Amino acid sequence: MDSPAPAPPTAAMRLRELAFGAACAAAVRAAVRLGLPDALGDTPTTAGELAAAVDAEPQALRRLLRALTCNGVFAEDEDGRYVHTEMSRMLREDTPRSMRYVSLWTTEPWTWEAWPRLDEAVRSGGQVFDDLYGKGFFAYLHEDAPESAEVFNRAMTHSSRQSAQDIAEMLDLRGVSKVADIGGGQGHVLAGLLERNPDLHGALLDLPDVVAKADPRLREGGALASRVELVPGDCRREIPVSADLYIIKNILEWDDESTRATLANAVAAARPGARVLVIENLVDDSASMRFTTAMDLLLLLNVGGRKHTQGSLVALMEEAGLKVGDVRPVNPYLHAFDSVVPQ
Predict the structure, then answer these.
(1) Quick one: DSSP state of residue 250?
(2) Distance separating alpha carbons of residues 318 and 218, to the nearest angstrom
(3) What pTM did the predictor assign?
(4) Structure confidence at residue 117 (pLDDT)
(5) Which of 102, 144, 219, 241 has the fewest Cβ atoms nearer than 10 Å?
(6) What is the rounded distance in angstroms from the CA atom of residue 326 to the CA atom of residue 339?
């Protein structure tokens, strides 16, 4: 006789799960730091065998695996051995579209200090990081937490590489001979576009120490270097680049003042008729709202920034003088706002 289907969780059960959500995040972090996703291969493996492989106490590891398995990270077969799931494979170092460093980044030690002060940030409307550590977020990372800074850099690199492919596939470049990647980090988006379009030229603008570490394909001697201009600078102060298309991706989230400055500088640099493509996470009209709303709160905590709604971003773009046209998803996490500089 078949067992009855489990009843759906009650409101109280769901609220308990939310309140204990830190345990789930900590379990994912522990799995990555122990090396469990990489230790588990394609063969079903017991908890004892995994414990030996990662140098962990077997009973404690079994408890960790149980917590992860009930959340879909790993699975247990009929013989009590563990196997990969789609989620656990995304925590491996060697998998395409790995979430390993993003998972570490969002559970770094400073996050556990900041989250309990979310009520303070909500009361004040500003970040709490300076009070916690006596300095700004990025200064703290680079001066006091080099390991966390490295995790941050790897997480941003992985995310940028993954979104670069999606952007290259969706972007219509008819009539575009030069594209400028503004605040583009290491230039993964630009490199992806240049590889797919052999007649395209490009420029990458970011802070000097960022541009110095650009994607090797873009630097001197790289496969794409002859078609690229590397421009050290701060887009909040000036955008000294002429292009047919300006791409501004995931940098309009710190505060409205810097967003206004960046958009105004793009309009000032562009010729009439040039396109400005803004790509951002949204906290509305998105399949990933649980993720983007969480990121929005994290930005409030660490830098006093925010993610945009579609309406708030369109309003800021129009305020800068842009004529906003098509708005469409790039992937479940990103939306693209296509606009032109009026004639």
Answers:
(1) S
(2) 33
(3) 0.88
(4) 95
(5) 144
(6) 7
Distance CA 268, CA 275 (A): 13
C-alpha 109, offset from chain centre: 18
Under 8 Å between Cβ of 160 and 185:
yes
What pLDDT was estimated at residue 285?
74
What gap in Å lies between CA 45 and CA 40, rounded to an integer? 7
CA 31 to chain centre: 20
Helix ranges (DSSP H) in the chain: 11-19, 21-34, 36-39, 47-54, 58-69, 86-89, 100-105, 109-114, 118-124, 129-133, 137-144, 146-170, 188-196, 208-211, 256-269, 289-302, 310-319
CA distance linking residue 15 with residue 29, whole number of Å: 22
pLDDT, one tens digit for every residue, the chain (343 residues): 566 677 777 999 999 999 999 999 999 999 999 999 999 999 999 999 999 999 999 999 999 999 999 999 999 999 999 999 999 999 998 888 899 999 999 999 999 999 999 999 999 998 999 999 999 998 999 899 999 999 988 888 888 888 888 999 999 899 999 999 999 989 999 999 999 999 999 999 999 988 998 999 999 999 999 999 999 999 999 999 999 999 999 999 888 888 999 999 999 999 999 999 999 999 987 788 899 999 999 999 998 999 999 999 999 999 999 999 999 999 888 999 999 999 8
Are residues 27 and 68 in contact, defined by beta-carbon separation less than 8 angstroms? yes
- Whole-number Å distance between alpha carbons of 116 and 118: 6
CA distance 129 to 187: 29
- Give me the helices (H) in 212-288, please: 256-269
CA–CA separation, 319 and 146 (whole Å): 39
Q: Find, among 210, 208, 209, 268, the residue nearest to 242 by Cα.
A: 268
Closest CA to 124 of 338, 300, 285: 300
Q: Take residue 133 and report the two structure tokens written for it.
A: 């550590």
* Nearest-10 crossing angle of helices 310-319, 256-269: 50
Cα 275 to Cα 341: distance, rounded to the nearest angstrom: 6
Which residues in 101-125 are b (16+ Cβ under 10 Å) and which e? bbbbbbbbebbeebeebeeebeeee
